[in-house]
Amino acid sequence: MPDTPEVWLRGPLPEVPPLLQPVAHALLQAREEIQELLADFPAVLLWQRPAGVASVGFHLQHLTGVLDRIFTYARAETLAPAQLAALAAEGHDDPNTPLTPAALVAAFARQVDRALHQLRATDEATLPEYRGVGRAGLPSTVTGLLTHAAEHTMRHVGQLSVTARVVRATQPQH
């Protein structure tokens, strides 16, 4: 991938409305960067928190969950019990089914696919429409939510990237 231009420089994505291209580009860029960064990431490092920062596992769970939740609000829907349970579980390994880096990366990739499907189906005329966020129904718009999904995702990809590099660098070499 080093010779491949960033996603936004590869041209428009088919069937994604023009005003939503930047959101789709950011999500695809995030997916590519995460897949490359964590291709062979050791499971033993998944929950390490160097200097108390969020773990790689948390970032992967959070990235997937935030996209799911924000895109739900963009559809003018409330969160389902399963989404609230996933939110409560962010940052924790499942002792019954231990999570692996590959499984968490795959879950994020699937969530990006669902987000892209929704972007393709979004009518640009709905972008300025009001959308309530959270139980309090804080004010936003479809544009605000989708833009926040893209910027929030990229912010966490940056944090994830640094954390993954730090924990790898501090791992004893065999």
From TrEMBL:
InterPro entries registered for this protein in UniProt: DinB-like (IPR024775), DinB/YfiT-like (IPR034660)
Official protein name in the record: DinB family protein
All residue ranges annotated as the DinB-like domain in the record: 27-160
Biological source species: Hymenobacter aerilatus
